[in-house]
């Protein structure tokens, strides 16, 4: 026994230190989610009669299904815009000096840390009837009556893309930073053009970052309650608001629980698709 | 010769397009905050842009908005307590799972990170159901518990990243020289991972202060939270006071980020 302490690994700590947080999560994260699942499997609000009535109600109701569908589509549109605009930022970041790099990071970072309500409010000011876009177009004489930009699908996608952009750009910057720049030089000196190099070398090698960014952006965009409700207005209903209405205004907890579980499963499905793509891409990148 | 000129043209078009999109995207990211700052100094009653004139009147108005003060005080209290709790629980957990290749450590890591991906709104509802089941009325305490669950991942992740960069030989040397584990932790490990902990705690604090999905279910009128109050004000009418409040929040965020960049090198930390 006397020799044991000397041989003990001093570079790592025991798993026991994770126990407090593990217990905390068990009590306040795992238990609530299990309780949510349990309640969703009941047909009445009191939670006395077991059954899958809530799920059947959701899955056979065209309205509920259309809410789910438009939420998933919204996430896809926002993720696509973020990737299209975010990738060039990460690309530019690798080509400028350290001072400009810090400036770019801070520009990307600031919105992430600014209140979501504030960022959404900014888009109300920009897209509103008297907002910048309408004021500019009117003063240029391009339109007579203000365009309806707020409370449209377009408005929600643009506002959400701006709000979630940092989640896409940060992993992309990390991924592009890990690519050996000799590979791009080699590709160019072997005769491939810049676009071809981007398509065949840089994009495949940055796929882990692209997938990480897409996962984060997608998950954040479809759950962005504030931006969806303020920019989308009353006409457009997405899953978070649907869930909130059922739980809060109608007090229909079992149905709200079923909506939560379906929403959770949808997010998990998307995340696992992205993860599977990530695994495939690693094979592709190595090939 | 022909092909080299073609390649140059092709390279130029590539650079121009990529740079142009990047600049447009960067402007798109920064513009909304600037617009709000400008509008918050309007002398008019609407959110018209550009404002008809400039004044500090809405900031003066903010001084008397006691409902917003009350909500801000609650948000600040909850954010401070959940950050403290997150540091305490998160750093200990990070020490246990960092660099550990065991399956249980990997599983715990996934568990601790899962609040970042799962819809927080579903968790908010679930937490409300559990608290009402065990008969715990919603209060600042339940808010602190809920916020800690969604904020602790930031502390764990940043601390794990800081620990991963720690040279194991430093710990071995310290042990060989006769230092106890606790002494080594206090004098070697803690000073080296402190910037990581501070960065994680800062992000946890900001995300608690800004949290909507959990607060939405766990607050009531006696425990009003600032983001929810602002949201409800905006749903009702477009109030210029909210623009002034947004101005205050933007300036406070810029100042805090500047301090954090100095103290922890925040920007490098989030991209490596």
Report on the architecture of this protein.
The complex is a heterodimer of chains A (about 290) and B (about 270). Chain A is an all-alpha fold. Chain A has a single domain, classed as MetI-like (MetI-like fold). Chain A contains 14 helices and no strands. Chain A has helices at about 5, 20-40, 55-60, 60-95, 100-115, 115-125, 130-140, 155-175, 180-190, 195-205, 205-220, 225-230, 240-250, 255-285. The radius of gyration of chain A is 24 Å and the shape is globular. Chain B has about 270 residues and is mainly α. Chain B has one domain (about 65-270): MetI-like (MetI-like fold), CATH 1.10.3720.10. The mean pLDDT of chain B is about 90.
Mean pLDDT of chain A: 86
| Strand count of chain A | 0
Query: Biggest β-sheet of chain A: count, sense, barrel?
Result: none
Q: Proportion of β residues of chain A?
A: under 5%
Total of DSSP H or I helical runs spanning 4+ residues of chain B: 12
Sum up the overall morphology of chain A in one term. globular
Instruction: Report low-confidence residues of chain A grouped into runs of 5 or more.
Output: 1-7
* Helix share, percent of chain B: over 70%
SSE-based structural type of chain A: mainly alpha
Instruction: Report the helical percentage of chain A.
Output: over 70%
Quaternary organization: heterodimer
Total domains of chain B, how many?
Answer: 1
Measure the end-to-end span of chain B: 42 Å
**Name of the CATH first level of chain B:** Mainly Alpha
Kindly provide the radius of gyration of chain A, computed on alpha-carbon positions and rounded to a whole number of angstroms. Answer: 24 Å
Q: Rg of chain B to the nearest angstrom?
A: 24 Å
